[in-house]
Amino acid sequence: MIVEDGREILIRVRGLAKSFGTHQIWESLNLDVYRGEILAIVGGSGQGKSVLMRVITGLVRPDNGVVTLFGQEEHTLSPEARLEIERRWGILFQDGALFSSLTVLQNIEVPMREHLDLSQSMMDNLAFLKLSMVGLPPEAAHKYPSELSGGMRKRAGLARALALDPEIVFLDEPTAGLDPIGATEFDHLIRKLQQTLGLTVYMVTHDLDTIFTVCDRVAVLADKKIVRTGSPQELQRTPDHPWIEEYFCGERARAASPTEERRVVS
Ligand SMILES: Nc1ncnc2c1ncn2[C@@H]1O[C@H](COP(=O)(O)OP(=O)(O)OP(=O)(O)O)[C@@H](O)[C@H]1O
What we know:
Belongs to the ABC transporter superfamily. With about 270 residues, this protein is an alpha/beta fold.
């Protein structure tokens, strides 16, 4: 376990480098993710936000650098230890990534089948519990993904990400494609889950409303590294990088930010 200033660091990334062919995405990227926080990774298109999530979760290999997961360096893990670690997180991909041939309940049970040894009725009970945690009605259990709205699919994907009672969930653009009401409801759901379960949330997002409503901290990807971390309000007050200035001080950011900032500009 890594503890710094009394806070536990669940994930530490140091000196990460990654290229695809001749295209270098990062040169030397550093990042810490603290237990219990809601962290947003932001940055311009193509800066490698999605790739970073894939590197941390082991889906993509970096060219250089060290990823430490729950205090253990990723490259030192045995296959068994890696599997143990994978049980400690859940991932919600952008489109929900549900299996279309499985019902919602069966989708939620996929990680349980992979990692646990439970009876069918036990898995069903747990899956129904996850459904209610994400605000889906029991009737949704036997539907196929194609029979659900976009918002319901996201919730079903989140229920699957929560299947193994993870300590951290990775969310890739959780509100993308949702209407404003659906997006606001999803933001509240994320905050509620973080508060009630003590979850750590790592999310890639472009959504300023989400950032200002639910995120404790933001990490900004630019110039092939994380150029700044801080609360959304700190970044807005002292935008010390052109991209941060453009993003956090533009009209859309002012509309999304809490009353204090809005009053200043009105
Ligand atoms: N498997 C891959 N092979 C080659 N290039 C890739 C691969 N995956 C990602 N890239 C490239 O890496 C860069 C970063 O991609 P990534 O999707 O992480 O960006 P992003 O910051 O999430 O962008 P956006 O905000 O547009 O989603 C892009 O230039 C992308 O084309």
